[in-house]
Amino acid sequence: DADVTQTPRNRITKTGKRIMLECSQTKGHDRMYWYRQDPGLGLRLIYYSFDVKDINKGEISDGYSVSRQAQAKFSLSLESAIPNQTALYFCATTGTENTGELFFGEGSRLTVL
Amino acid sequence: QKEVEQDPGPLSVPEGAIVSLNCTYSNSAFQYFMWYRQYSRKGPELLMYTYSSGNKEDGRFTAQVDKSSKYISLFIRDSQPSDSATYLCAMSAKKTSYDKVIFGPGTSLSVIP
What residues of A are in the B interface, CB distance below 8 Å? Predict the structure, then answer.
């Protein structure tokens, strides 16, 4: 089983719908992140959480919200999806090892029509 | 100007060639430099991690950092078809505050048998 699991892997929805992307991890890490990947723009940070009671905005948080339900679970919501939120979304975790390596899930591809 | 620039490619080379992948950046505060490899339909995985200027070698891979020129490189020797992937450079000013990791857009590499 993957250390970082994202659901759904693919989702097509319509403008104005509420969407939730879920992430769970078995690495025991406290720090979890949501990134968005678009062609030519790289990975951009949406939200991050250093523990269950800590939520922080990243560089592109507008239009998104998150919930840290437990150490292992971090969900991303689009309250009212719009077409420019069509992208590949990645959840990641990191521990406190020297490298601070990010461990990514396999991604959730979201299409908003 | 983007904080991190990377030629998106695509780059196509024959098997056995030496590959050079490069990134430039504008923020002189960056001290930690990383290369992630992303296979199609997968999340990125850490490939190389370096601190400050200098070289680091790991098997067929060599990472170079020139902070005076704000330029980093990844060299792949004896390239293999299994090296076909997108390579993302990433950098940060602090070791553990992954909220400030900035990713380049990635270079797509194909190694032709």
Answer: 4, 31, 33, 39-45, 48, 56, 58, 90, 92, 94, 96, 98-102, 104-107
